[in-house]
């Protein structure tokens, strides 16, 4: 198949999933065309089946905000037309689903039928999408997509709850490439960070409010009172400065390191003992899956799609959002020498269920079904 993939080419989970999906599909012989406003972060190599089309967003003194959606729709029209695409797969509803709808209508006038698959990732539904300033367009463009997928059952449920949706939503969970995300021998790194064999706690995120990084630091602070431990914080974002101030206020700076945006996050995960994801909302929790693949147990909140990933008492624990005392108690239980090996083993076993080889065929089947239905429905 010739597939166009539209996504945010940044460090966010939806962009990572979209890029990894495109890479995996291309490795299976599909021709993949990425249509994004800059080169996706994980697309930094050559492959004969991978193409990149940059969306050129022209500005003009009149525009306070350059019209990204129009530039994207125009680019989609051209790529579909000149590359002969079979399908457009857009990740994150805003504004990709509505831009795809516009491209589809333009192409229809030219006698071309292009099926559109929209994948919902989370905040496009649970935070931004349901805001009245976007809701009507999000509802419309989801309903008008030829196929819709969500990354968890919980996100599917939320979509039906917040929007007037009368189309099927297929749940296809996120996935992981276990060839890349696996425990590597990085003892020298562990020794450098934890010279006294301290336990190593890790958190990775985009440091947005919804991630509750403050809870990570507070749990660490409590754990640190009981056992020797270190904390690595990977990523960057709006809350980072505030978090650095909190570390200073608690006097824990010596045991906490902010690593910033890191491409090879699997190297850090390889030496971690516990991964923390205390998010307020999380439709899937891709970062937690990456940790499990590296044999790291999870301490997470019990919201959104996380319980579909983290099995309470097996791969880690699910806790109430913001309950620092509960999280501390559970963290100490996992980190106990007699419990830790079992949690690590279970985490890896669970991650294997989300290997790319198991999830990719679900997308291929869904694409084929969507193309077939769309052909039947179109008069072209
Ligand atoms: O978590 C974010 O703020 C980024 C966001 C995105 O769209 O990049 O992540 C969402 O999509 C990821 C990939 O499907 C999911 O793993 C995350 O759980 C989801 N984030 C939220 O629901 C908050």
From TrEMBL:
Coiled-coil segments: none
Q: Which InterPro entries match?
A: Glyco_trans_1 (IPR001296), Glyco_trans_4-like_N (IPR028098), Glycosyltransferase_grp1 (IPR050194), Thiol_BshA (IPR023881)
Protein origin, superkingdom: Bacteria
The Glycosyl transferase family domain is annotated at 185-346
Q: Name the Pfam families for this protein.
A: Glyco_transf_4, Glycos_transf_1
Q: Which residues form the Glycosyltransferase subfamily 4-like N-terminal domain?
A: 11-180
Q: What is this protein called?
A: N-acetyl-alpha-D-glucosaminyl L-malate synthase BshA
**Species whose genome carries this gene:** Cyclobacterium plantarum
């Amino acid at each position: 198949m010739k597939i166009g993939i539209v996504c945010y080419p940044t460090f966010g989970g939806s962009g990572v999933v979209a890029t990894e999906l495109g890479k995996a599909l291309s490795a299976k012989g599909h021709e993949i065309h990425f249509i994004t406003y800059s080169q996706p972060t994980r697309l930094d190599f050559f492959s004969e089946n991978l193409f990149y089309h940059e969306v050129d967003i022209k500005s003009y003194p009149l525009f306070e905000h350059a019209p990204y959606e129009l530039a994207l729709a125009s680019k989609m029209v051209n790529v579909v037309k000149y590359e002969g695409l079979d399908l457009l797969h857009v990740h994150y509803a805003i504004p990709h689903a509505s831009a795809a709808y516009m491209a589809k209508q333009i192409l229809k006038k030219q006698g071309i039928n292009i099926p559109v698959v929209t994948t919902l990732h989370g905040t496009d539904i649970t935070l931004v999408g349901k805001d009245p300033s976007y809701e009507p367009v999000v509802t419309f463009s989801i309903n008008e997509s030829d196929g819709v997928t969500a990354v968890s059952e919980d996100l599917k449920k939320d979509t039906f709850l917040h929007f007037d949706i009368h189309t099927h939503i297929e749940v296809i969970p996120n996935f992981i490439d276990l060839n890349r995300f696996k425990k590597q021998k990085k003892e020298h790194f562990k020794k450098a960070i934890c010279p006294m064999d301290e336990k190593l706690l890790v958190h990775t995120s985009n440091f947005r409010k919804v991630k509750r990084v403050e809870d990570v630091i507070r749990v660490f602070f409590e754990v640190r009172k009981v056992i020797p431990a270190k904390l690595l914080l990977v990523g960057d974002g709006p809350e980072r400065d505030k978090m650095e101030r909190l570390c200073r206020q608690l006097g824990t700076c010596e045991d906490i390191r902010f690593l910033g945006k890191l491409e090879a996050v699997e190297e850090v995960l390889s030496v971690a003992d516990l991964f923390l994801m205390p998010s307020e909302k999380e439709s899937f929790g891709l970062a937690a899956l990456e940790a499990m693949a590296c044999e790291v147990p999870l301490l997470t909140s019990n919201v959104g799609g996380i319980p579909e990933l983290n099995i309470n008492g097996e791969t880690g624990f699910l806790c109430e959002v913001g309950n620092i005392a509960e999280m501390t108690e559970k963290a100490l239980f996992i980190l106990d020498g007699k419990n830790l090996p079992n949690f690590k083993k279970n985490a890896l076993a669970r991650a294997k269920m989300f290997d790319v080889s198991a999830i990719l065929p679900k997308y291929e089947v869904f694409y084929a079904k969507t193309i077939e239905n769309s052909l039947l429905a179109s008069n072209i």
